[in-house]
Amino acid sequence: MSDLDKYRTQQEAYRAGAGRTTTTPYQEAVNRYLGAVAYGSDEPDRPTAAASRTVGSVVVGVDDTPTTYTAVDHAAIEAELRGCGLRLVHVQQPGGLRSPTREAGARLLQRLTDRVHAYSPTVPVTSRLEVGGAAALVLAQAQTASLVVVGHRHSTVGTAFGLSVADRVAAGHAGVVLVVRVPGWPPGPEFGSRPIVVGVDHDDSTAVWFALDEARGRGCDLVILHAGDDIATPALSDTDGVPVRHAYVTGGPADALIEASRNASAIVVGRHRTTGSALGSVSRTLVQHAHCPVFLVG
């Protein structure tokens, strides 16, 4: 069964059960992709994408591994929720005895494009094949993007889009970066209903407002996790129906956020840069150890 056939079967099931359950936009999108556990080479039929979209784009770095295929799924969902286009960027390393061919890269990009069209048929997809340094080329493609998505491997092996590249893109991009960390993916069916958790340490109003907007678009709850003694809490005068809860922790904020990530659909934190473009200690720890995707803001 192709990706598109699976999608149609799932949609029929959702319509049949519409009177029994209510799903949020994010749940609906996630549930479509959770039906695709395997990342094979089958290329589904391609529905026609919607022509009218809003301004903005989501850029995602890809290679031929399950980790970054999952990153593409999350990037496509974000593009769908935002009503914008998706750009796939695949970077090949030059030289070497087993240097990948451009034909192999083109096939990968086409396979991923077909996958997105099968599960998010209204999302326009473009792709770019580059040769050189992965982090620098992803950052170059992402200069005007509203969101950059990178996958993060759950091991110490650094390859085309592994630990070092994710860290450098997360630290080097001036806008919002989503680092896709989901050990044990695919999760249970409750993943799409989990809240967004935003960490607040002193004045993190930019991260809070981004988290609120993200929760509004997903249709989920927002949990504001306060850490530290001197807390400046942004006044949420208009949450537009987003249920907001507050939690307070003492001690290290990184440990509290990592624990909260076990039951969150995403964590939002400020970058809190130290020197130059280096990530702050909390954001760097979350990129490496969170149990869910991490948004880095500011």
Automatic annotation (TrEMBL):
InterPro entries referenced in this protein's UniProt entry, alphabetically: Rossmann-like_a/b/a_fold, Universal_stress_UspA, UspA
The UspA domain, residue ranges: 57-181, 243-297
PANTHER family per UniProt: STRESS RESPONSE PROTEIN NHAX (PTHR46268), UNIVERSAL STRESS PROTEIN UP12 (PTHR46268:SF6)
Family under the similarity heading: Belongs to the universal stress protein A family.
Name this protein carries in UniProt: Universal stress protein
